[in-house]
Each structure stands twice: as structure tokens, then as C-alpha cells.
Design brief:
The protein has a single domain (12-263), classed as TIM Barrel (Alpha-Beta Barrel), CATH 3.20.20. By secondary structure, it is of the alpha/beta class. It has helices spanning 26-36, 50-60, 80-94, 115-127, 141-151, 169-177, 197-206, 210-220, 232-239, 248-255, and strands spanning 4-6, 12-14, 18-19, 40-42, 68-73, 99-104, 131-137, 157-161, 181-185, 224-225. The N and C termini lie far apart (43 Å). Helix content is 39%, strand content 15%. α1 (26-36) runs parallel beside α2, α1 (26-36) crosses α9 and α7 packs across α8 (210-220). An eight-stranded parallel β-sheet has the order 3-4-5-6-7-8-9-10. Strands 1-2 form a two-stranded antiparallel ribbon. It binds adenosine-2'-5'-diphosphate. Adenosine-2'-5'-diphosphate is lined by residues 19, 186-191, 194, 209, 211, 227-231, 234, 237-238. Its EC number is 1.1.1.346. One of its GO terms (molecular function) is oxidoreductase activity, acting on the CH-OH group of donors, NAD or NADP as acceptor. Belongs to the aldo/keto reductase family. The record marks 72 as: Lowers pKa of active site Tyr.
């Protein structure tokens, strides 16, 4: 159902994942998604649903080793001792003895604790075998440069906001030039971009839904997507994006919708914590 991307850690990451941020029924939704065929689940300490995500994984009946599980370090937990302790708590909440990927959720450059030390702690966790791969989220090129320059360890992934109105190409290209895979969060722009006439026009021509067109656009750009839905019908629809293709003209038409910073749905990482 999905293609995979080889991470710089050697792990295989399914290009289609299931997002759980703001899931209304995380346990039931994760179980349904896995039964439909998703093999990659994304959660975070910040979402407050790791226990339910673990419950959904167990209820799905899908073998643990067949699922790629990601969680992320919450912003107040950047201190190395807190990062170690809360990582263990995350595993316990999920009922897992390892995660496939552990990310620093936000760089928080204005915290007193330097995210470089947090990154060094993630390297330790990786070396312990309890996080198979490690990476970051919402990092800008200067943040990436710092941690790579100081440790020599390149994150496997940078999970960033990407959707048609905020294509985030500068960060994507910088990361990709360093061998860092891009995961697009809010790939559907939280659903708001699905009524755009360019997207709905392409969808109509192809006999696909606007969400499928947007997800396919990400996939053809080589990014990983983690759409969220609590509705089974939409989970199925969002997973059915590997049996059709967008033309170069379609790809360019969607790329032209980019509004730069004005299209962003979140605060810029450099102002967080200010
Ligand atoms: P719901 O959970 O009710 O299905 P993103 O992943 O970009 O943050 O977008 C998630 C939002 O998009 C949610 O509000 C979700 O609503 C909605 N959504 C997810 N899949 C689809 C789809 N195939 N068609 C329309 N809306 C969707």
C-alpha cells in the first residue's frame, strides 16, 4: 500500500503514516488505520495520547515489528535528565520497549537549555537501542547546521509543516541536501486547502478527491505524509494514493499555490518561547 524511504540510519520509513495530533478517538483510530493497512503511526508527548496510541497498536493485532512508531520530546523536557526520564515514560505509556523514531518536537532556541545538549541526549538514547532512529521537528537550517556541526550526527528526519499554501521549500531543500528525510505535518493544511479551485480542478479531472491529490503531490515530491482523520472512510481514501500520478503540469500548478510565510499555520520556530 505504501512505498518506503530509506533513512540515513538504514531504517525503512513508510512514506504514508497516520497522524494522531488532535485525534478525537486515538485508540480506535490507530487500530482502524493499522487494520486498513497503515504501517506508520506518529504521536508525541505533547499530544497526551501515547497510552491510547499504544492501546490502538495492541488492539489492531498487527505485529509490533511491522509498525514504524514515532514519538516526540515535549518542549518542557529538553533538559537531558528530563529527556531521558520522559522518554522512558513515553515507552511505558505506549507499552513498547523501543520506538522506531524519536524526535525533538521544537528547537525552542530561546530556552535556557541548549537544544544541542538535548540532541546529544537523543544520540545516547539511540545508542541504547531504545530509539532505532532519531531526528528533529520544526528545525530551521541554522538549527540543523548547529547540531550536525557540533556532533557529526545527522538527524534521520526533520518533521516540518508542509502543505500547498506553505511549501516550505527552503527548509526541505536544505534538509534533503544533508540526507535528512522530510515528513510533512498537516499535509492537508488541516483540511482548509481542499476547496482550492486548482486542487479541486485536478481532482475532478482525475476522478480523485482533493485530499488524495494533495497527498499525492507530497509523495511525488519525495516527502513522507502523516494525514490525520478519525473517520475510517477518509483513512482509506488517504491511503489510496499510490495507484495514480500527477503530471508535471499538475505538480507545477500546485507548487504555484505557495504563499510563503503567509501560508504558515503555526508560529515560526524562532519566535517560539520568546
Ligand atoms: P477528520 O478527522 O474529521 O476526518 P492535517 O492532517 O493536514 O492536519 O488535516 C487534518 C484535517 O483534515 C482533519 O480536520 C481531518 O478531519 C481532515 N481530513 C482528513 N482527511 C480528509 C479527507 N480525505 N477529506 C477531507 N478532510 C480530511
Amino acid at each position: 500500500m505504501t512505498t518506503t524511504i530509506e533513512l540515513n540510519s538504514g531504517a525503512q520509513l513508510p512514506q504514508l503514516g497516520f497522524g494522531t495530533s488532535q485525534a478525537a478517538t486515538p485508540a480506535a483510530s490507530v487500530a482502524a488505520a493499522l487494520q486498513i493497512g497503515y504501517r506508520h503511526v506518529d504521536t508525541a508527548q505533547m499530544y497526551g495520547n501515547e497510552a491510547e496510541v499504544g492501546e490502538g497498536i495492541r488492539a489492531s493485532g498487527v505485529a509490533r515489528e511491522d509498525i514504524f512508531v514515532t514519538t516526540k520530546l515535549h518542549n518542557p523536557n529538553h533538559d537531558p535528565a528530563d529527556a531521558r526520564r520522559t522518554f522512558t515514560e513515553s515507552l511505558r505509556r505506549m507499552g513498547l520497549d523501543y520506538v522506531d523514531l524519536f524526535l525533538i518536537h521544537w528547537p525552542m532556541p530561546f530556552l535556557q537549555i541548549d537544544y544541542l545538549h538535548t540532541w546529544e541526549t537523543l544520540i545516547e538514547l539511540r545508542d541504547s537501542g531504545r530509539a532505532a532512529s532519531i531526528g528533529v521537528s520544526n528545525f530551521q537550517p541554522d538549527h540543523l547546521d548547529r547540531i550536525i556541526g557540533a556532533t557529526g550526527v545527522v538527524p534521520a528526519v526533520n518533521q516540518i509543516e508542509v502543505h500547498p499554501y506553505f511549501a516550505n521549500n527552503e527548509v526541505r531543500e536544505f534538509a534533503k541536501s544533508h540526507g535528512i528525510a522530510i515528513e510533512a505535518w498537516s499535509p492537508l493544511g488541516k483540511g482548509d486547502e481542499l476547496t482550492d479551485p486548482v486542487i479541486s480542478g485536478i481532482a475532478e479531472r482525475l476522478g480523485r478527491s482533493p485530499a488524495q491529490v494533495v497527498l499525492r503531490w507530497h509523495i511525488q515530491r519525495g516527502d513522507v505524509v502523516i494525514p490525520k482523520s478519525d473517520r475510517e472512510e477518509r483513512m482509506r481514501q488517504n491511503a489510496d494514493v499510490f495507484s495514480f500520478e500527477l503530471t508535471d503540469t499538475d505538480m507545477a500548478a500546485i507548487a504555484a499555490l505557495d504563499r510563503g510565510e503567509d501560508g504558515r499555520r503555526s508560529a515560526h520556530p524562532n519566535v517560539l518561547g520568546k
